[in-house]
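Posted in: Protein Modeling Q&A

I'm a second-year student putting together a small comparison for a lab meeting, and my supervisor asked me to include a predicted structure for cysteine dioxygenase. I've never done this before, so apologies if this is the wrong subforum. The sequence is pasted below exactly as I got it from our records. If anyone can share the structure token output, I'd also love a short note on what stands out.
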Amino acid sequence: MQVEASSGLPELEGSRSASRGGGAIRRRRQRRPRRGAGAPQAMAAPAAAAVQRLFEACREVFNGAAPGAVPPPAGIERVKSVLDCITAADVGLTPNMSYFRRVDPRGTPKITYLHLYKCEAFSIGIFCLPSRGAIPLHNHPGMTVFSKLLFGTMHVKSYDWAAQQDTPDVPLQGSRLAKVKADGILTAPCETSVLYPEDGGNMHCFTAQNVCAVLDVLGPPYDDGSGRHCQYYNVSSSAISVGGSMLLPGADRYELLEESEPPEGFYLVGSTYMGPRILDH
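Accepted answer (user: helix_wrangler)
Welcome! Here is the predicted structure, written out as tokens:
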């Protein structure tokens, strides 16, 4: 997904302007720290360590893999186990931050993307969704993707392309058959979900039931020049016949997907990540 850059820093809850009425900023006498004042700085170390552990795990797992190749199971489990332990506090997020406010209650909520790190092998970022915010159905060509819901409740629907033997003997008129892999509600805390180039729900969409934050790892990241273009889709039919039999509840579900432009009103903007920094030695 293409992210529109934002030049401004996010407004943190409770922040105030550095000066008032255009006057000069008055310097205050520096006070001697009280006993125990160093505790907050000490508490910041585990948060920084959590983000750094994620970066180092991704670097070792993805830098050794060929572009588009799925890392070995041990590598997948390593990244997933690190993500499973990360919390919103580890990345400096709370639900009352401005990222999660709806500016216009009647309009389409703006989605904010916080960039943590990106190289040719992988990227790390966070999607911040206000209540009822939605990320439309899109794909991840040749990519392995980890998604960790940090807080909130969201509806998730995902698909994989149907196997050749599942394709009905009828013209699809530009659409392609996809198998529904997931269609339900996800609530934090929960395990990290993993999708693969050909399995696990490579195409998915999110709709926030309340304010949500999703930490994403993409390996490798989108790159039009390498054929990893983000394509959006619409569902053209939700009840079809396959091999002459109507799909029944409880059986595998298939839907017809057709390529589309991003939906009108979908607004994704980039903003500055304010949490613990990643050190790339």
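A couple of things worth pointing out for your meeting: Helices lie at 39-62, 73-85. The longest strand covers residues 176-187.
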